[in-house]
Each structure stands twice: as C-alpha cells, then as structure tokens.
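From the shared-data thread, chain only:
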Amino acid sequence: MRPSYMLIDLNRLEKNYKFLKEKVEGRELICVVKADGYGHGALEITRKLYSLGSRFFAVAIFEEALELRKEFDDIDILVLGALDESDYEEAVEKNISITIHDYQSLDIYREKCLKGLGKAHIKVDTGMHRIGFSVDEIEKYKEEIISIKPEGIFTHLAKADEKDKSYSIYQIEMFKKAVDMFEYEFKYVHFANTAAIMEGDLSFSNTARAGIGLYGLSPFCEASKELHQIASIKSKIVAIRFIDSNEGVSYSHKYISDSRRLIATIPLGYADGYKRNMTNKAKAFLNGKIISQVGTITMDQVMFDVTDVDCSIGDEIELLGDNISTDLLAELSGTINYEVMTSFKKRLRRIYC
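Structure, as tokens:
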C-alpha cells in the first residue's frame, strides 16, 4: 500500500468541538460537515461528533445530506445550498431540512410539501449576495413564508473573519430587522460561523454554525491558540539520488541545481490535492529539519532537497502537520486554508486515531 496518507486526530476534534460548544454558551451548535467534512471525511467526523452528543449537522448539497442520512436516522440535517426541484420530495421523505432562499423555492416547497411534513430554514441575504431573500422580499412575502411553518431562519456573514467588524454588525442588524418582521417564533435563528462564534456578539441568535474551527483551522489571518489542527499528511521516501551541479529536476527543469544535491522522491502529487502551484516553494519536515521542495510537482510524485538531512529510503516525511501548517501551504499556494484542505482527494488514504 502506498505510504502516503492523511492522519486525523479525533481527540483534537473533540477538543475543538468542546471549545466551540463552550463559546456558544448553551446555544444549539450546528456542525458543518460539507465538502466531505472539509476534506477530513464527513462520515468519520460525524460519527465522532455524534458520540460527543451533537445531533444537528449541515451540508452544502443534497447528495451530502443523503450520505449522512444513510447512516444516521436520528440527526437533524440542513442543506445550506439551493436544492434542485426534483429533490424536494425526497428531502421531505428523509426528514432533511431545506433552505428556502427565494420566491421560486418557496413556491416549489409549497407545491411539493403540501402535507406540511417538510422542514425549512429561510435564508436572508444581508450582504453576502449569493442566495437568500432580501430584507425587502422578506417583508413582501412574509405571510407566505409563515404559511409553510419554517423551523429556522439564517443569514451568512461576509466579513466576520476581518478585524473591522462594522459590516458584520450591519448584517446582524439587517438580519434582526428581517426576523422582527415576522409575528412568528422560529426554533432556530442563526447567523454565526466560526469567526463570529470566536469574536462576535451572538446575543441575537439561539443557534450557531461551526465549520472550519471544528477541524482546528482558524478563519482569521493568524492561527488560533484555542484550536488544534486535526489533520496531518505523512509519506515516506521511496527513492534517493544525487544530482550534479547544473542538473534539472522534474518536468521542464524548473529547478536547476547550483551544486551537487541529494534529491528524495515522495509518492504523492497534485492528483492527491498537493497543489502544483507550490512548485519550488513547498516545505516539509524530515528527521527534525525543514526541507525544500524542488522541481515541478507532478501528478503522483514530488521531490525534495535532502542534502543537509541524514535520511534514507523509508524515512517518514511530514507534508502537513504540527511542523508544516495548513496556513503555510495556503500562503505558498496563494489561497486560504479552507481550499487547501478541501482539495485533498479521496485517493489519499485517511487514517483516524
């Protein structure tokens, strides 16, 4: 078996969950496991959180909800994104909560869920401008919205991860205005993501949504001392060779040695989600030292300069973990930690401990 894998520490997941649970001060905490649990494995993550008492989960698309429902029949599942019209009836049948985000989805819901068996959350667009009723539309359609007896209402903050909280405060004020238009008591009122849970005022809510923080990653520019990264990626050296000065490594020879160098090959590449645009920039940790990646990152293999490290074939290398953070890989690849983790493919084995 290929010696490349993602190791996921479920004890750290528990610590993160308990920290976020404490931060919401008795509010319902929806655990977001979309995008295959942000790349960590939705089912295994849900199993662990379920064992800790969590019973409310959110996903982005209907197919993710169905995957959870196959295993768990006693949890609440909210699909945060828009559903295709063909999925409404099955969502009702399988007790999956639907996001109603415009008049068309409201109309479909009323048509497909006439027996009143469905569960719906109303999405309000307060400034993200993806999906959701505007505040004016809430006022226009409020009686029709109430007629479906929605269980929840929510919005999403566009800038909760920024130091300047003025726009988040504005969005919450707009959300409160929308909620107050209803003479109706929603079971779930939520706007807070991980960033807002950690730094925001949750007083106008009884529910919050924890996503990236569960996995130990900070939504802010700097790492959080309270959160613990749960994933690490390990592999082993499968080949070592010396190259002379002025020799190239990998496709197009984008790395040319300036002296005699020792090059190690690792069986992992961009087909696993190890981003090609980190070529000649990525770092790894081997036998107590930080080493540099050299040559174009290929589909299935990546090379590192190990000239200054005492190493041999079979030695373990850390590509992501306590010494090589997700935030570092995000910086080197010009993206965010969310994308780094959700990019890792299922062919990269997950091991849970």
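Residues 166-180 form the longest helix (15 residues).
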